[in-house]
Amino acid sequence: MNFGPKKSLGQNFLLNKEIIKYIVELGKITNENIVIEIGPGTGNLTEEILKKSPKKFFAIEKDKNLYLELKNKYKSDIKLINKDVLKIEWNDFYNEPCLVFGNLPYNISAKLLIDWIRLNNLNALFKKFILMFQKEVADRIVANVNSSKYGRLTILTEWKMSVKKIMDIEPNNFFPKPKVKSSLLYFEPRERFYRFDNSKNLEKVTNIFFQNRRKMIKKPLNILFNDSKKIIKKLNLDEKCRPQNLDPLTYFKISKEYENELN
Asked: Rounded to two decimals, what is the model's pTM?
């Protein structure tokens, strides 16, 4: 059987033991914690997490061969789940907030993050996330207003999470060696955040704005509202601004106005 990395699953296994130890230390795992590892692969990070003796440890591995190898190796120490992480029902997963570790496959990382953000009770389900992303995606997540990387992913993340970049990691720390750098990010769900009737309204607003990111905001406002001048006045907007000039809070307010108009 072949237990090597599969290109189709975007697998790149982290090998650097010092970085692995550092990642686990960031989690401050105690015997009170419920831990989830996404994509344990060959078990390099798994080994370090087990040394911290978490109360319960789940590992989600889509690759059937790796799943069987890990199951054979760890027996009952870990609850292994052979499933696509995008198909996990997080609301039914566990009844305590979990710590999540993951070297995320590049091809699903942004989608998985947005799936988590859409959860109504994110802060009740998760305590913190320590996740590896392709650097280009990570830069979009932590981007500052007025920068070229700032966009929908930044705003959606900021809505429900506080996030900080821990470090960039060079390709030679992985096998196989990816063509791009990776970045380690640390997330904590917010207890207080802007409430919407439907999170898809925030997604629609940001999508329309950033489809027109080089245009002045007057254009997306005209698409979204029957009377855009009223919104510009109410929110004290400069219609000559461009989408990357508006901070996340302004997008939350625009989205709330859009929701009110729908109702």
From this structure: 0.93
